Amino acid sequence: MSKNKILIVEDEGDIQELVAYNLGRDGYQTRVVSTGEEAFTAAVNMKPDAILLDLMLPGVDGLEVCRRLKGSVETQHIPVLMMTAKGEESDIVVGLELGADDYITKPFSPKVLMARLKAVLRRKAREETRETSVLVRGELRIDPGRHEVCAGEGTIDLTATEFRVLHFLARKPGWVFTRQQIVDAVKGEDYPVTERSVDVQMVGLRKKLGDYADCVETVRGIGYRFRE
Ligand code: CA
After folding, report:
1. S-S: 65 plus which of 6, 36, 71, 130, CB 3.0-4.6 Å?
2. Ligand 1 centroid from CA 45, angstroms
3. How confident is the model at residue 128 (pLDDT cuts 50, 70, 90)?
4. 105, 130, 155: which is the final residue of a domain?
């Protein structure tokens, strides 16, 4: 496997060093920039496999960088892992909605960082899974062609919206989705789904999933994810 190239966008010297050192030790090629202004140009020139993006940057902040990265055809496919501080939940939500792929809260251990980064790279590689293919997730078998969920021997009877929510989450186990992202993914022309109604759908979905309810996890302050 060729070396993964990672762009690190971070203004604090000690975190730059910590991250670059640990990535380098694991065989990643790294480049560090310390401002949002440099980040976009560096992403275009370097074509990194992933970007570690600090949100709190002087000048152009991390969210704006994310908006530009995900808004450009040149860079929108590059996974972005946000590095955030405690208490930045609302920024995390905005970042995820802008298309960031995951986040890690400071202070983090190098081990956790490496695990998250590997997961982001791995998930990106797996992403080409076709929309219509049957998903097998542990005991659950989710068949979008038949609109059917089987668990063990039985079939679980879901409404159309519950099915769409489950299928949307299960396509990317481990990914956190905000309520707004779920709304955007599942709303039908005939059925206005609101952010609040996502919570209602989750209650219904979990009830019907019964013994398998814990495959859908609530991520406090952010949204939901399918257990990896
Ligand atoms: Ca910072």
Report:
1. 36
2. 23
3. very low
4. 130
